[in-house]
Amino acid sequence: MKVAIFNLGKILTGDLAAPTAVGDTIILTAGKIESVGTGGSDGEYDVEIDAGGMTAMPGLIDSHVHITFGDYTPRQKTVGFLESYIHGGVTTCISASEVHVPGRPRDPAGVKALAIAARKSFDMYRPGGMRVHAGSVILEPGLAETDFAEMRKQGVWLAKAGFGNFATPYEYAPYVAMARKYGMVSMVHTGGSSIPGSSGIWADHLVKIQPDVSYHVNGGPIAMPDADFPRLVNETKVAMQVCTAGNLRTTLLVAKLLAEADQNERLLIATDTPTGSGIMPLGMLYTMSHLVSLGGVAPELAVAMATGNNARVYRLNSGVIAAGRDADIVLVDACLGGSQSDALSALNNGDIMGVGAVITDGIPRFVGRSRNTPETTRRVKVARCRIPQTFAAEH
Questions:
Q1: What's the topology of domain 60-281?
Q2: Residue pLDDT, tens place only, 261-279
Q3: Collapsing DSSP states into helix, strand and coil, what is residue 371?
Q4: Statement: the pTM of the whole predicted model exceeds 0.85
Q5: Own/partner pairs for 382-387, CB < 8 Å, 24+ apart?
């Protein structure tokens, strides 16, 4: 499918180094971004979308989602939550481990099988068009190098520390090292206990473990002591993920410390849902607005923290609007009836952005109106379509 998005007011790239792009048109071909520039529409595309002056940004990447199997969460007994997140601009979810599977196994064979099964179950399943990177092995005592080798061969590339039956968090260190040896991205629960069976993990543990990502560093939902945050910034290179279902005050502290250290590339935005805090289809948008309006983060940088930063740490081809990257794009604007005139001004004001269209894998999933955000001030529409599909949200 060839898609043209034209009449854009602004293009946010998701790249911290160059957060905006010059132009008003994005061309998508066969699931990839073909070009970013100017030119408008000339009638040669399968679908032509008139953005009406709205802002384009990469699809949001929620790097902390507790998926199970299918589009269902037993924690909240809700069906269709992932498809609903699409309407909040989230085009990719990354598993924070399948820890909420009822009666989940805790032995090495069981956690290995769970990760492989979850990974394979989402290989071809895309709820609402979303990419779901599932299968995050829950590190447990007894896992051996042969287990990591087998999991990697079966496509598992995520490893999670924090829920294993270890006497102390320091014991995770050799398992994280094994995961890294086999090319896995490792994440460690950070802060106080979140569910029965988990324990507090603080800065000294993380310094010794050296994971790739400190999960919900602002607390999931309970934060570690303030004195620990400078240690993570100064003594490690760990990516520091802040989540909506966490402590807002320490979210702002993390942003401040990383900005002062000129290390904004280490800040990742996610939600940590579904959990006891619930389901948050707009969680990414809220955390972005908090960082901008309360934390002084430039709005275009907040977009990058929710897109390109996650893509870099998790080695994804999405998250950035540039030629050759995955064609996951969201059109956003100020919400109708608010005090602001565009998407970036809305974030500065502490408002969420309205979502007007979502494209994943180069395919429009809806054009016109999100069912979860307020209506946008500007109007986006399908100007021409050679496919028997309206792409309207109600369809």
A1: TIM Barrel (3.20.20)
A2: 999 999 999 999 999 899 9
A3: coil
A4: yes
A5: 382/47, 382/48, 382/49, 382/50, 383/6, 383/41, 383/48, 383/49, 383/50, 384/41, 384/43, 384/45, 384/47, 384/48, 385/46, 385/47, 385/48, 386/45, 386/46, 386/47, 387/1, 387/46, 387/47
